[in-house]
């Protein structure tokens, strides 16, 4: 089932399952469907809201110029749908948005953040934006043509595979992007910033770092401990920045164990 916020923010989300509320926030260039397998698994214990963040997916037309603005949109969505004290799971950019929401006062039963820390990051997506722009300006008529176009700029097959999931075909048969790539490029610097610090959060929090990823380093671990007093960091072996795609079974095992006190009942 798809729902939208009734407020001016108009975020869209897919909803499945029944039970206490659990919100999933995706990463940069993704959409709510990106973590469908995670949502499907957890929907056996929760009502799962897979939210499309501003400028992404079905929320592509919702503007936001910072992580904090995205967090405000998510909080408005929760308010509109009378969702109180949800469990929140956020990956990458979605993890930053989740942290920002909690640090700015959102009450959450538990917080799970996948492979991101509350710190500022250096730009690292220049080649990705270049590939995205090349596709957008090339009027391509097949997914293979899109892949071939991106392969001229990108060498990582997983990145190409991921971006290919975020294509849509227009009425003219040409492929375009489900996200507003121009707005994201313009606001990219703001999205790299650390979440604005509020009060220290006592929310039970789990941070999952990919063993093969450098997104949660020593500085990141220190920032986590300083802002989230009731937190722990777990390293998932053999995975990089996309644990839900690279080590799904192992990730779900960690999530199931952590969430048992917060509504998980299998």
Structure characteristics:
266 residues; 2 domains; 11 helices; 36% helix; hydrolase; hydrolase activity; AB_hydrolase_fold
Distance, first to last CA: 23 Å
* Largest sheet features: 8 strands, mixed
Tally of individual helices: 11
Using the coordinates shown, work out and report the CATH topology of the largest domain.
Answer: Rossmann fold
Protein name: Putative hydrolase or acyltransferase (Alpha/beta hydrolase superfamily) protein
InterPro entries: AB_hydrolase_1, AB_hydrolase_fold
GO molecular function: acyltransferase activity; hydrolase activity
Keywords: Acyltransferase, Hydrolase, Transferase
Describe the structure.
It holds the Pfam family Abhydrolase_6. This is Putative hydrolase or acyltransferase (Alpha/beta hydrolase superfamily) protein. By secondary structure, the protein is an alpha/beta fold. It folds into two domains: 2-120 and 194-262, 3-Layer(aba) Sandwich (Rossmann fold); 126-186, no CATH class. The protein contains eleven helices and ten strands. The chain has helices at 36-42, 67-80, 93-103, 126-136, 143-151, 157-164, 181-186, 188-192, 218-227, 243-246, 248-259; strands at residues 2-4, 12-17, 21-25, 47-52, 87-91, 110-114, 167-169, 175-177, 205-210, 231-236. The chain has an eight-stranded mixed β-sheet, sandwiched between helices. Strands 7-8 form a two-stranded antiparallel ribbon. Helix 4 (126-136) crosses helix 5 and helix 5 runs antiparallel to helix 6 (157-164). The longest helix has 14 residues, at 67-80.
